[in-house]
TrEMBL record:
Lineage top rank: taxon: Bacteria
Membrane topology recorded in Swiss-Prot or TrEMBL: Multi-pass membrane protein
Chief localization: membrane
Keyword tags: Cell membrane, Membrane, Transmembrane, Transmembrane helix
Cell compartment(s), UniProt: Cell membrane
Segments crossing the lipid bilayer: 21-43, 63-86, 93-112, 124-144
Species in which this protein is naturally found: Thioclava litoralis
Protein name: DoxX family protein
Family note: Belongs to the DoxX family.
Length: 152
């Protein structure tokens, strides 16, 4: 009968590519999500305009300034992710923003994002991605890693 190793001590030694590649994977997530957030912020600014964005948020029963804050957070938070400026912290701050979007703008449209008005699955998935990024780390090529903020 074949022996199945249940722990690393019994497994043969091999190069640990996971620990070398994980920072690159996080970098890829940072660049992708950062670019998407920048795009969303720019759409709110140039297409919907700040007044239109504020008006839409008011139509949801929220203060108009929340729309302007969201637009600003998407743009500058996206840039922070791209450049690696406190990426774990920025990712964590995106979680409530995205869950708020799901609750305020999408929950009434049902689950599937392809529903009219977009369902809540997409912003909740993005909230999960941001939460996982906050847990995973800053990734490669972060210009100002989060751990620098919390040095003693």
């Amino acid at each position: 009968m074949a022996h199945i190793a249940l722990d690393n001590a019994a497994a043969p030694a091999k190069p640990d590519t996971t620990s070398r590649l994980a920072p690159l994977g996080i970098l890829g997530l940072r660049l992708t999500t950062g670019a998407l957030f920048v795009t969303h912020g720019l759409i709110k600014y140039f297409i919907f305009t700040p007044a239109g964005t504020a008006g839409y948020f008011q139509s949801l029963g929220l203060p108009g300034w929340v729309g302007l804050l969201t637009m600003t957070a998407e743009f500058f938070g996206g840039l922070a992710l791209i450049f690696g400026l406190l990426p774990r912290l920025v990712s964590a701050l995106f979680v409530p923003l995205l869950l708020g979007a799901a609750m305020a703008a999408h929950i009434a449209n049902g689950f599937t994002f392809s529903n009219a008005g977009g369902g809540w699955e997409y912003p909740v998935m993005w909230a999960a991605v941001m939460g996982m990024m906050a847990l995973l780390g800053d990734g490669a090529a972060a210009l100002f890693p989060t751990h620098r903020l919390f040095r003693r």
